[in-house]
Amino acid sequence: MDILESSPPPRFEEMYEQFHKLIYHIAYNLTKDVHLSQDIVQETFLKAYMKIDTLMDRRKIKAWLTSIARCTAIDFLRKQSKRNEVCIESHEERHPLQEQNGTEETVEALFLKSSVQSNIDRLPASQQEVMRLKVTSDLSDKEIALMLNLSPATVKTRFHRARKQLYSIVHRNLSA
User: Which of 62, 104, 109, 152 could cysteine-pair with 145, CB 3.0–4.6 Å?
Assistant: First the structure.
C-alpha cells in the first residue's frame, strides 16, 4: 500500500518503510559515509516523527522528508567540519528534543531519556561504559578514551554501536 493513498494521518511505520532507503541514499550522496548516513536517517525520522503534525499536504511527504534529510545531512557535515572528526551524535549542544518548550514535548523528551538510560544495562559491558560516560557525564570521546585507556576511534565505534543497539531496543519497546 502506498503511503500517499492511505487515510490521514500517515502511519509512521509505513512512512519509514516506504522512504528510509531514499533518505539513506540522499544522506550517503552528501556524506559518502555509511555510518554517518545511518545516523542521518535516524535523526531525519526522529525529526519527522516530532513534527508530523506540521505536514500540511500528505501528497508531499516525499518532498518533506527529503528536505529534512538534506538539512540534517548538511547540519551533520557542518558539525563534522567544525570538529574536524567524524560526527557520531548530531546536535549534541542543541538537540531538538531539548529545545521544545511545551509540557508535552518535555515529558516526551524525559520519557525518551529515561527509556535510553534504563536500557543501557542491556548493552554489552564495553558499550555500557562508553554510553554512560558519554550520555550521563557528557564527556568527549578523547576524555572517555583517556579514562578507559582506549583509542578515541575505539570509543567512537563503541558509542556508535551502542547507540544503534539502543535505538533498536527503544524502538521495539515503543512498538510493543
Answer: 152
Distance CA 127, CA 88 (A): 14
Element (H, E) at 27: helix 12-31
All three cell numbers of 125, joined, read: 559491558
Q: Which residues contact 81 (CB under 8 A, 6 or more apart)?
A: none
Instruction: Write the pLDDT tens digit of every residue in 109-167.
Output: 666 666 666 778 888 888 888 888 887 667 788 888 888 888 989 989 988 888 888 77
| Domain over 100-176 is classified CATH 1.10.10.10 | yes
**Cβ-Cβ contacts under 8 Å for 119 (sequence gap 6 or more):** 166, 169, 170, 173
Residue 13 burial by CB count (10 A; 0-12/13-18/19+): exposed, middle or buried? exposed
- For the entire predicted model, the pTM comes to 0.43
Query: Right CATH number for 1-99 from 1.10.3720.10, 1.10.1740.10, 3.30.70.20, 1.10.287.3510?
Result: 1.10.1740.10
